[in-house]
């Protein structure tokens, strides 16, 4: 990718800052080493721990206004998806092109229902897909990491098959993941991000904690003003 | 919108607006309660540790601002984005206006950005024919009303549902009811159409990460991420202090920001974006411009007000402040209200225009106590008062003599006792029912609205001494 351009007098901009920064008598404040230490839960989890984390995630997620399903096998997955299609009266859904979702053969489950499922990319050109994506009633994503303590999905969109659009536009969001994706909180996320990406972060990473909300009118909590109004988490057992 | 230049007139106007005052009291009360519950969940000790860590992080960043900003600029351009370094608000506005012209932009959607309010971006873009639409529900409401935000995180806190319905009905073809769910539903439908026709998106910046060049946006509604996903050209405006070294520091700040602002554990949507999409990706901006704004910020570096640059704009000092809670945001006159505004406005916009705000405080320290990054706001307000007096030397000879006399009288115990004795003897013409309710200028002004208790026959320390003596005998 070509480098961008800097506009404005870089030298002058920075020389003002440098001139004004003063070193206080005790010296400048050092960088905080390991800033997260002691603030967040830090641990390696076992399969059993993660089953407990699943309960915590479900508790947080439902408090935020989401719905969660605890799924043992493919039969239960199909049941859950059909229940959502029924509840939301879905006609059109789109999903990420993700290897984990591919394994679940969602198209087969949908073929048995009133709703259609399109896999990204919907069209090859921007002008073509935008209208189509906007008409979709549900988006299905794979949550790469899920934070139990805050009920948060972590969605790095690092590949063209996993665009942000799928979780941005539709009024219903369905996130699927296994208990293996669960971490306590930020410590687990940062560890995985460092291992996977270093400082070369994906184009977009979204942290989603529940449905879109606002309290802008009279401080009354109202759900779904811009983002998803209905959010579902389908948590498969890793065993 | 015209803003009355006198603070005195602005707060008097606010005090007459009972509907607004009721809404602000209700809103700030709720936010305070939610924040308290969130802190309880974390535990008081751990919360203090969070604050200490956050303060240390911010302090380090501000004292090494040049290094982190250089690193950010290098990473943003490496990721394919463009950077504008704007020393003044005008430079930033000019850059964005020229970009809009070059792109022949008709529809510009914004997500909440205090800096864009600060530099008066919207009028400049509207002047050249762009349709600029605020997408945050609260911001859109006040845009329709032609007003400025009254609260940092709840900009339309002062409006009730009936006022909102009137504003929506002015742009709606069908009648919108006064039910809050219907009002939100209308906003979703109306703004969604605009999102799909977006030419340029403009966002603010909660935190920029120096080591990766990523921009973090936090919204509960999800409007910022619709913009950053759909806008072919994305502009992000950041105050130059809104920067962190990397991801680890960000997690501390996001945890503090949400809890301090609304009492949530995390904001619903936190998005980290490195800007331009990869060639094979279909969504995300094709062009990304980061506008880094100084506009008075670098002047605070190395001064006693440096820590004001630690601010993460959570708004909790507003909710804590007894003055803000009783006059609302508009009385402060500029973009930033409450204690943070009372410090920022005179520092960024000049003491002559906003110096009076240093008196919009009881100096109770509730703001400092509420601040998640431990900015000593009430100390700064006190320092600003000193600066104002030094700068203006308004006191004149009489005031000067009075304070010198007062200082001399109170500096020694015997002179203090003597002056109290004299005052006690000569106060009688002013005393009525043990109170002083009127007096000569300049104290007559003060006494207009309150009574002063008359000096008692005996002070506590005198009674105490007598009692001790009695005991001895």
From TrEMBL, chain A:
Domain of life (superkingdom): Bacteria
The protein depicted here goes by the name: Lactate utilization protein B/C
The record's annotation in Pfam families points to: LUD_dom (PF02589)
- Residues of the LUD domain: 55-235
InterPro entries cross-referenced by the UniProt entry: FTHF_cligase-like_sf (IPR024185), LUD_dom (IPR003741), NagB/RpiA_transferase-like (IPR037171)
Transmembrane spans: none
SUPFAM superfamilies (alphabetical): NagB/RpiA/CoA transferase-like
